[in-house]
Amino acid sequence: MASRRLSLTFLLFLYLVISSHTLAFDDLHKRHKSKIKGPIKTLVVLVMENRSFDHVLGWLKSSRPDIDGLSGSESNRVSASDPNSDEVFVSDDAVFIDSDPGHSFQAIREQIFGSNDSFADPAPMNGFVQQAKGMSETMSKTVMSGFKPSLLPVYTGLANEFAVFDRWFASVPASTQPNRFYVHSATSHGAMSNVRKDLVHGFPQRTIFDSLDDNGLSFGIYYQNIPATLFFRSLRKLKHLLKFHSYELKFKLHAKLGKLPNYAVVEQRYFDVELFPANDDHPSHDMARGQRFVKEVYEILRSSPQWKEMALLITYDEHGGFYDHVPTPVRGVPNPDGIIGSDPYYFKFDRLGIRVPTFLISPWIDKGTVIHEPDGPRPDSQFEHSSIPATVKKLFNLNSNFLTRRDAWAGSFENYFYLRDTPRDDCPETLPDVTTSLRPWGPKEDASLSEFQVEMIQLASQLNGDHVLNAYPYIGRSMTVGEANRYAEDAVRRFLEAGRAALRAGANESAIVTMKPSLTSRVPAGDNGLYQKDY
Q1: Among the residues of 342-404, which ranges form H helices?
Q2: Where does the signal peptide begin and end (predicted)?
Q3: Are 6 and 36 within one domain?
């Protein structure tokens, strides 16, 4: 039946294998819809890329002494073990970061502890310069730099109008994807970087999306290039594919109509191309673009009829290698699910990553609020990315269990919506304009990909079936940014179209579409066995 509905052109490129799954018990019976008792009915989450708190917000302390930021006396020595080596002090001269500082597990360990010894408590935070200098001579000054508040006017405005967390940490001392997994599932399922098996089949852990669905509440993902949330296997099920929306086409419309779901995830443009420059703040992207994007998201939400029952949380996945002076918590952090990281580190997931900028925005939040450490649920609990699913569970009165031991431990922030009797009526309708670029040139479409972008192409190759080729997992390493952007957008389009076609054909809603590659659209790329798309 499905083949009759697909065009001949579509058949040349797609082959659908619908995995048979038995419908879960909750899908066979009408589910009880959780009753939301508090003032917030919609939580919007936006996760930006690779910046530390001190790098972005540290210099706000000059006008906001209640924020734990920078005084100017903070420094690292060139050699963490040599007290007589040269010092590099923090500076407020960050404008555009062209290089990409180290943020692998081993690089972060050196940044936090100054060596491979990770037992110091409190963590000394003394190895940033040493680690950066090992990458290049100029990198050490880069990682110690921060932005003047005037260069990031949108964030300065949000900090003054709403709430800033100055004790929110990345969930794991590792790179982007493991931390993004914690945002929605309170675990990375043992991943400290890419895990090929899980990339191909999808990460299997339960997510907050599953809990919302089980409780009859809604969610939606508003994406631009490619939704990173498709790393989760459960979100690839046919029943969830209609919850993926084009940000450009649907986000403003849904907000205007008052139809944003209970839990809305907004994703950025991860590839920097001339027509649509990246706006995720990942080096070497222009942070002015990120400021305009955050301004746009806020102003869309502010004009929505849902505004008075809404909250927006903005955070960063990880620190991106930039300095932060607040010691990373190394004690009392629970392993979420008993999984130990792979060799050679065998990380126990028992300490957090480095502090990142985080904002809480809502008419239920007083002006100029600073949120420090949480009040429980345990004496050693902290705010970290698992605080998001922990808060969603409590905020929306979910009957489901916590996802892991980590979100059961993490501090939650729902109580901050109960400090007022009524919502504010003085929230700004607009935020400051960002009129100038912080980058001296435009996008470079012929540039090679960052590690994060390669991961996104590996995800795209799974969606369109190319993961079965010999090129995987090296696919993307020979692509330019422009090629990768086209490849990713095409993969997402084909995957979602195939899923919708399967739904129209009456396929099991719990099934997952598996694509087969169209080898006729690829040509060998040299003698290295890789393939490239013939656009």
Answers
A1: 387-395
A2: 1-24
A3: no
Report pLDDT digits (tens) over 162-179: 999 999 999 999 988 999
Residue 169 shares a structural domain with residue 271: yes
CA atoms within 13 A on the CB side of 109: 12
In this structure, is residue 433 part of a structural domain?
no
Residue 530's DSSP bridge partners are 525
Same domain, 196 and 331: yes
pLDDT at position 30, please?
A: 37
Residue that finishes a domain, picked among 398, 417, 436:
417
**What per-residue confidence (pLDDT) applies to 197?**
61
Q: Under a CB-based contact definition with an 8 Å cutoff, are residues 301 and 362 in contact? A: no
Q: Do 383 and 479 fall into the same domain? A: no
- Write down the H helix ranges in 114-152: 128-133, 139-143
Tell whether 407 and 522 lie within a shared domain: no
Which residues, 6 or more positions from 160, have their beta carbon under 8 angstroms from its beta carbon? 64, 367, 368
- Identify the CATH number of the domain in which residue 298 sits: 3.40.720.10
pLDDT, the chain, mean:
89
What b/e sequence results for 129-153 when a residue is b if at least 16 CB atoms lie within 10 Å of its CB, and e otherwise?
bbbbbebeeebbbbbbbbbebebbb
pLDDT at 34 over 80: no
Specify the pTM: 0.91
Asked if 479 and 466 touch (Cβ cutoff 8 Å), the reply is no
Task: Answer with the residue of higher pLDDT: 135 or 201.
Answer: 135
Our count of domains for the chain comes to 2
Rounded to whole angstroms, how far apart are CA atoms 143 and 131? 10
Residue spans of alpha helices (H) in 90-231: 105-113, 128-133, 139-143, 153-161, 176-185, 196-201, 208-214
Note whether residue 488 is domain-resident.
yes
Nearest of 507, 520, 462, 518 to residue 232 by alpha carbon: 462
Residue 21 token pair: 């799954």
> Span 124-135, mean pLDDT?
96
Specify the pLDDT at position 392: 98
Query: Quick check: bond before 336 cis, omega within 30?
Result: no
Does 11 share its domain with 63? no
Residues 290 and 364 in one domain: yes
Q: What residue numbers bound the domain in which 466 lies?
A: 2-27+444-533
**Which tens digits make up the pLDDT trace of 443-489?**
999 999 988 898 899 899 999 888 877 666 678 788 999 999 999 99
Residue 422 lies in a domain: no
Q: Token digits for 207?
A: 């997510």
Nearest to 230 by CA among 219, 244, 248, 242: 244
* Residue where one domain finishes, among candidates 417, 436, 462: 417
Distance, in Å, from the CA atom of 387 to the CA atom of 350, rounded to the nearest integer, reads 16
Residue 250 lies in a domain: yes
Which has the higher per-residue pLDDT, 526 or 213?
213
Confidence of residue 515 (pLDDT cuts 50, 70, 90): confident
pLDDT of residue 518: 53
What are the tens digits of pLDDT across the range 385-418? 999 999 999 999 999 999 999 999 999 999 999 9
Cβ atoms within 10 Å, residue 384: 32
Q: Does 121 lie in the same domain as 230? A: yes
